[in-house]
Amino acid sequence: MAIMDAQEIMDMIPNRYPICYIDYVDELVPGEKIIATKNVTINESFFRGHFPGNPVMPGVLLIETLAQAASILILKSPEFVGKTAYLGSISKAKFRKVVRPGDVLKLNVEMKKKHENMGIVDTQVIVNGKKACTAELMFIVADRDKKL
């Protein structure tokens, strides 16, 4: 059972169609961990060019999907409510499995460190019980109306 649906997610993060990649949140412990879901369909706009006849979800979009899940986790932390999270860095990224239409992505994100205006998370994309992508992401958190 989802604890956050697509509308609640869009109320929290600024991403919109065609680049809002979280369908729902399965589990959430604010400031600690989140599990969210992305259903990959053949209707995704990026499949028109990546690749015709061999549809593969681009690795950069796997990272973006993880970043969106991480943003939800960070912005649900009491000290960051009402702010915006910006991706600051990506490290230790590994792509282990091709993601195709019909795959269900389980996005696991755990808070590693939290400071005054930033957070570091460990992330995983799981498809059918296997790791498809892992990465460590760092976020900078700012007021919603402040531009970095």
TrEMBL record:
Enzyme Commission number: 4.2.1.59
InterPro entries found in the cross-reference section: FabA_FabZ, FabZ, HotDog_dom_sf
Localization of this protein: Cytoplasm
GO molecular function, one term: (3R)-hydroxyacyl-[acyl-carrier-protein] dehydratase activity
Keywords: Cytoplasm, Lipid A biosynthesis, Lipid biosynthesis, Lipid metabolism, Lyase
Function: Involved in unsaturated fatty acids biosynthesis. Catalyzes the dehydration of short chain beta-hydroxyacyl-ACPs and long chain saturated and unsaturated beta-hydroxyacyl-ACPs.
Protein name stated in the entry: 3-hydroxyacyl-[acyl-carrier-protein] dehydratase FabZ
